[in-house]
Amino acid sequence: TYILNICIMDTILEQQRRYHEERERLTDCLAKECLHKKTSLRENINSDHRMRLQLDRHVDCSEKLFFLYEDKDGLRKEEVAALSGPNEIGEFYNRLKQIRDFHKVHPNEISIPMSIEFEELNKLREHTDEMTTMVDFTDEEGYGKYLDLHHVYNQYCNIKGLERISYITFLGLFDRLQDIAKDKKNSQYREYLFSLLDYLHSYVQRVKPLLDMSQELENVTKDFAEQWENGKFPGWPKESGGALALMGAHLDLSAFSSSSELMSLGLDRLKSALLALGLKCGGTLEERAHRLFLTKGKNIGELDSSLFSKSKAGKNNAGTKEAAKNKDLATIESQVFRLVELLAEQKVATKENVQRKQARKDGEEDEEEDASASESDDEDDEVPYNPKNLPLGWDGKPIPYWLYKLHGLNISYTCEICANFTYKGPKAFQRHFAEWRHAHGMRCLGIPNTAHFANVTSIEDALKLWEKLKEQKNGERWQAETEEEYEDSSGNVFNRKTFNDLKKQGLL
């Protein structure tokens, strides 16, 4: 079998077998990639890009297999006939001779087995570290965490007629395209819109490589066409030029079924109706009736330009061009809206990141810039120096020690009810009484987590307080034996117990 496989190497059947094996190994590799544990956004993005490459390779193999099975040139059929014909032994030795001759000419020609290739892919996936880079991001983008819209923001500020705003305000308004007035959507706005679409499209492909962008944009185009037809697309009211009904001339064509019926209206009436639509109003009675009947149930854009007067035809052509231009702009806007929806998480994170940066003090910024300039890229990849085990801030570096002591994070609080969990600082300690961990511990003790047990962390103290509260509640409860009153025939008042005792003795 091994010799036979070598014999048919590089034949059509061997190519088909190899493509089938490659597809199966790619499927197994995709399954392992899905099951591989990802702990960060960087690892998720890298994993998606690896899966994208494997999916593209799988599709390429499938297309080649389809081409080979289709066998338009008939070579596969000839090969199968040669291997299964009466001279199959001769064919076998002929191909074996070709293989030997090839290896004599190329003695060092070695092909890497497919199993070794995929073993290397699996090892690469297992040993991928946190700093591995598979796609290019700018420093501002933080490997898919934030958007970098500075270039687009500069274009927005250069649009004539728009108010100049800050970058952080722009981050909250850049997708509110419907708020921009129609008369301000000029050529500069068109350039800005294309730049914004190009950036968002590129960013989505880098962050979400498994997303089928062509299908997504096709769905957007279908939804847009429906909204545009109904005049419901945001920022663009319905264009004039719907079905033609001669309301200005007080003539409803729905009541007429043919042009001959319109002739009964007379020359003057037909002329006024044609003038109301800007159509040619000359000619005989029959020509006017026929020209007017052609407008029944149609849009202005659907009519032949020869029906209009010269001045009206020029206006209609200009209006048609303007409408097409507006529709193209609205199409781009619909795609921008959809891409921003896909990046809603990054949009919010970008605005919060800019706000954090602006809230930092100038002195801290200068110190961090000096420190970052002095450190090399290798030092940035290492674990930050933190001998006092201080908490890490939003930038991944230890917070200042004075801030650590100001918030009391050097003080530890242990709660026995929370299974001896330790809380750092008074703020976290006070907050934990209303959180799930403490509530679960109280529920396990059979005690309600009410305000009476605030600041109680010992199980023994909580049980004692619960018993005391139950006794207090029992003491305050209504006791019918001693508090319910009865009156005898002489007007004497007794409690329930005394009244029953006297009654049993016959003293009442």
From TrEMBL:
InterPro entries: Matrin/U1-C_Znf_C2H2 (IPR000690), RNA_Proc_DNA_Dmg_Regulator (IPR051421), SDE2/SF3A3_SAP (IPR025086), SF3A3_dom (IPR031774), SF3a60/Prp9_C (IPR024598), SF3a60_bindingd (IPR021966). Residues 364-383 have a biased composition (Acidic residues). PANTHER family: SPLICING FACTOR 3A SUBUNIT 3, SPLICING FACTOR SF3A-RELATED. PROSITE patterns: ZF_MATRIN. GO terms for molecular function: RNA binding; zinc ion binding. Its main location: nucleus. It is found in: Nucleus. The keyword Metal-binding applies. Belongs to the SF3A3 family. Keywords: Metal-binding, mRNA processing, mRNA splicing, Nucleus, Phosphoprotein, Zinc, Zinc-finger. Residues 352-390 are annotated as: Disordered. It holds the Pfam family SF3a60_Prp9_C. Residues 352-363 have a biased composition (Basic and acidic residues). This is Splicing factor 3A subunit 3-like.
